[in-house]
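Colleagues,

Please find the record for the two-part complex below.
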Amino acid sequence: MSLYKYSFWEVLKHAFSAEVWERVVPAISETMYMVAVSAVFVLVFGVLLGLVLVMTSKEGLVPCKSVHTVLSAVINCFRSLPQVIIIIVMLPVARALVGKSYGSNACIISLVASCVPLFARLVESSLLELDKGKIEAAKAMGSGNMRILFQIMVPETMPSLVRAFTNAVVIIISMTALAGSFGAGGIGYIAVTYGYTRFEHDLLFATIIVLIVIVQAVQILGDTISKIILKRRHLI
Amino acid sequence: MDEKFIEVKQLYKTFHTKKQDIEVLKGIDLSVGKGDIYGIVGFSGAGKSTLVRCINRLEEPDSGSVRIGDQEITSLGKAQLNKQRRKIGMIFQQFNLFDSMTVAQNIAYPLKMAGASAKEIGARVEEMLALVGLTEKRDAYPGELSGGQKQRVGIARALANQPDVLLSDEATSALDPQTTLSVLDLLKEINQKLGLTIILITHELEVIKYTCHRMAVMEDGKLLEQGLVKDIFQHPQCDTARNFIGVYNKFRSDYWQEEAK
């Protein structure tokens, strides 16, 4: 149903029809798969790199200028590229790693390449917010660096880390939709192929609704978890 | 009594900033007897906090030495230092409790560092909670506590590993007078009960007068005067001490008595 032939309300109504959702539902599961797998990678590598950034900084537990400078520069390089360009740049890498440059798994590689640096920076800023006094107290009690990192720094900043990860997941979702136009499949693919090229605006509307609902759900979930932790600690 | 249980010799420390080098400690010599409560007083920026942080090497001194008991702190490697730090408790102005842990978990943390068994930890935590009078608050989070209660947890946490020394870095400066008094009473109590040596940094002279046996006056990176609290109060030798006591007396003076004259 195109907006050129039918009224807005008719198209919107049709966006909820079974005929449309038959095509949208499989796309949702594809998108969910890409988002979920990417999110896991982003979580693991983002936290890891974020921790290394904080640890090796001048004020960190193990100051190491060379590591910090190089890592910081690499992260900045990735972050300075728009997502579209990262997707294009990562196509050959995806081909080398998963054997093809299209499809969900190839898309995950560009998602990870784009969102890990972003999340690493978010983790870094969360950890830097931590009161230095707590780290000093842990040091004064004779804690080694690893214990300070995983038993003090990470748990103490957990509410902030949860929020940061929520932001990262929202960005992963929007980028998944973008990657859809580069052969990744999923909701983005539906929006571009049907909504843009074939003027099937009912499908476009359906994808918009799906994206809004998913992002809202993720945001609410993240905010709630963060708030539960803060409430438990009586910090709000 | 061991008169030189803690001995600091010729301690120097300079902070390097981009603009300038700031010499914070200029050859500190200090000895503290075992079981003493030793006060170090000075105005802001005198270097007293840096001095106390050099004792457990939260701050690395540039030169000089620190010895506690038989242990030369300044010559320890990192692993040994961590081990030795477990025997030096420290409390802070901002308490620095871990918000992610309950009161009991906060007190248990240093015990875990020291590798105590779960049973030992449980017993020791209960003992500490009783000592600071917070048994009821065992499962509370620091966020629920008042300033005075937080500092009590800080003290319990600092004492959990049965340290020989307690360093107090402006521990009462963020507390109201009544709470300050109760925390100081607690420090005096544990000093007597456990024979703990306490070094207490403050800018509040009344805190020293109330709590300490001996004291030092610090100004511009140097210890200007050391001795019994009584002697310094009665016969301050250096200008800084006289200045401090002058301010102290001014606060205590009653204007209505002045007016009556």
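The mean pLDDT of chain B is 93.

Comments are welcome before we finalize the supplementary table.
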